[in-house]
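Hi there,

I know you've been waiting on this one. I reran it after we fixed the sequence typo, so this is the corrected version. Both the input and the resulting structure follow.
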Amino acid sequence: MGELKQKLATMSPEKRLYTLETLPTHFGEAGQFERLYRLLTDFDFIEAKLDALDVQALIQDYEFVGNFTPSPFSEKPGDELPAPAKTLTLIEDALRLSAYILAADKNQLAGQFWGRLMAFELPGIQALLAQAKPQNSPWLRPLTSSLMPPGTPLRRTLTGHSAVVNSVAVTPDGKRVVSGAEDYTLKVWKLETGRELFSLNGHTGIVKSVTVTPDGKWVISGSVDKTLKIWDLDTKKELFTLKGHTSSVDTVTVTPDGKCIISGSHDKTLKVWNLEIEEEVFTLIGHTDRVAALAVTPDGKRVISASADNTIKIWNLATGKELLTLHGHTKWVESVAVTPDGKRIISGSHDETIKIWDLETEREVLTIRGHNYSVESVAVTPDGKRLIASSRIIIKVWDLETGKELLPLIGHSDWVGTVAVTPDGKQVISGSYDETIKIWSLESGREFFYLKGHTDSIYDLAVTPDSKHAISASEDNTLKVWNLETSESIFTLKGHTDTVKALAVTPDSKQVISGSQDKTIRVWNLKRGKEVFRLKGSNRSVESLVVTPDGKNIISASYDGVIRVWSLKARKQIFILKSQTRLIYPVAMTPNGKALITGLAANNIKIWNIKIWNIKKIGNVKTAKELFTLEGHTGSVEYLVVTPDSKQLISASWDNSIKIWNLESGEELFTLEGHTEFVNAVAVTPDGKQIISVSNDKMLKVWDLETRKIVASFKGDGELLACAVAPDGITIVAGEASGRLHFLRLENSNAFGSECNG
């Protein structure tokens, strides 16, 4: 126990709280900057203050230091504290990046520091990490800097919505963010601290779009419930509702004078509403498909609409007449913006391009290519020089004059459907399908990306039995092979033409087998990193794979409702198993090789006894006798694993639970509950006493099966979809929806090992 920790332990609760609250300010105001530095780099102080107060109180201590000009921590000749100013900035930024995680679980502090700071070689940082090692309880220590580190444009993450965030807007004073989501709510946030101020409830359907009036007093929202609602930001109440659309209101905007609202709908129309009299002025008809996005010119005279009919239309707001149509995109136009000078239109489309149009000449000026998916949202900085565009999980900043990419904003783990820029042009706000809102700085210096991995979601992971390699399978159509000892990527296996959903390793560690949405199974030589051969026969995506314990056969499950058994030696399909109930995935096999377990479409699990397979020829199809069905899950069964003694089955489900079953009797033994979202994968230890699980709630949990309690946990930046545990029993690999890989070590606990996938 450190000296500070000992002193705090002897204080009364009141004095302890007062000390934690005031000590940094006291040192700073007294000019005792060396003591202040040592305090703010003391893990015991950080942990104690976080526990007693909250993460924002801690961040304010570092902001207090930053207010001194010039910095008292600038490096001087002979200074015994190298680069102290940078050290404090890194700690502050790490706390800000982890704020939403620590607000929910303060026990994540050590893991968050290790995951974000270990790549920085500053002595102060390394000393902090050396101290940040819980001694008396199990914890998961990151082995690589796999969490978003300080130094990137990402500043903060806001959490609170329980569904996809469809729209974000910033108040004119730049102090608040308003968001609309598929949980039917709007939320208002304080931008400086990331704190949720309040929610606006009233819509009976998904909130598709939000905007704020120019005076900052009202919020307008459009919803799938076919209505627009107007809310007062001061009273936090709904003022009135506008009805008239016959389908979802997908986009709303307001004129610069704040007098009119324009809405675009799935009913293919735009409507103009008078805010003062609370009535519809007129309807604009012309599009032949849904209206996806709207923008008003700065002079308030024209409205621009983007549509799924592949066109952009410009309308006269005074007369309601269509002025012109812009053709050029080859697919849906999903987003639109106008430059501050009113001279140019920017549009984003499902054809993966951004187009810039001159409003005066009515011509396309420039096409920007560089996104690999549909461009979901576009925004322009107030100075008109930069364009912000989102496509799938990546946001890019572009130079509007040259069309050159300036900066990628990487951090979301699912589609980014909305972006907005603060009035001062310094920050970008984004909302995502990952249910978060992120704040990005456009003023950050050069990027530090220590994060390595895939460019898209990781769906499956395995560790070779010889403990030398980890293998990951991804939506980017590749597999990567990693050195388990160094956590470094060795090579990438390319060949699949669609998402790689499943993989398995042969018992001799020489081959890895992969299954893909391209309907093929491929066998790879791990030593040479080359494809050996491929197997074709599935009519749909290959979703799950296992290799039989003797290493001779592969068993695959696919969306065509069939289990296929393949011979590795003969390189062909041996036979097919069909059930009367449509099979989906996953598949698992008992270690003794006697039973096959499969997941069913009806949230159930079916057990097949391999020894008594009743081979009954029906053409080229063979059927197997089923032992029994396990019923109990209320959501899709996503992963299955069997204990080493072949007696118990562990199942992970999208009903947020994990169930343990007796394989001999088919009885459900108990359920583990603790995840708040879908459980994607589980693993069991060699002794059968512990399991790990990963979930869409971004948590990896280690459970003790005897006590049925959580032993340790780790939270990633994004949804965790896959995991694997090395034979050493303490090295864990987890895969994120962002494509990142986390290498973790369970410390202060018994060793365990196994593997699982998502």
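Quick highlight: The two ends are 41 Å apart (CA to CA).

Best,
R. S.
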